[in-house]
Write a structure and sequence with these properties.
Blueprint (H helix, E strand, L loop, with lengths): L14 H11 L7 H8 L6 E3 L4 E3 L7 H12 L15 H8 L4 E7 L16 E10 L2 E5 L4
Antiparallel strand pairs: 1-2, 3-4, 4-5
Helix pairs in contact: 1-2, 2-3
Organism: Candidatus Woesebacteria bacterium GW2011_GWB1_38_5
Protein name: Peptidase C39-like domain-containing protein
């Protein structure tokens, strides 16, 4: 493992591609989120939201976590995925993973990320961040939203 402090890239709207670029930067790979974004397939397309009468600019199957997987596969990286639905936060398991590499985690409910005073206050806004260290009860993150 290359032990480089992850770079920081900001950008609230493309948190999944920015977090992925930070992850790759932590191993010495300089791949722009501007390249990762289209490889995810997430933002490609538009749909008409009938109830609101407004267009919604996103792919119909635009799950960012699936998009990250696809982008990393296209770029030729080997990686591990884990899924935790509900219940207790798996901090012990995450700490083990972080011994090898930082980790992109998400989708997280952004309203619970109380370190960010500008976060949305209502639930339902998915967000992705990079976690790179756990020390005691502190979790160190690079959050593209600041």
């Amino acid at each position: 493992m290359v032990n480089i402090k992850p770079p920081f890239y900001d950008g609230y709207w493309y948190c999944y591609s920015n977090s992925t670029a930070m992850l790759l930067g932590s191993i010495g790979e300089n791949i722009s989120s501007k390249l990762i974004e289209p490889l995810t397939g997430v933002g490609l397309g538009a749909m008409f939201h009938e109830r609101s009468g407004l267009p919604f600019f996103s792919g119909a199957a635009g799950d960012p976590d699936k998009g990250i997987t696809k982008a990393l596969e296209i770029l030729g990286f080997k990686f591990m995925e884990k899924n935790k639905e509900e219940g207790e936060a798996p901090f012990d398991e995450l700490a083990e993973v972080l011994e090898e590499s930082p980790a992109v985690i998400g989708p997280l409910n952004m309203s619970f990320l109380d370190y960010n005073p500008d976060r949305p206050k209502s639930e339902g806004v998915d967000h992705f961040i990079l976690v790179y260290k756990i020390e005691g009860d502190k979790v160190f993150v690079n959050d593209p939203a600041g």
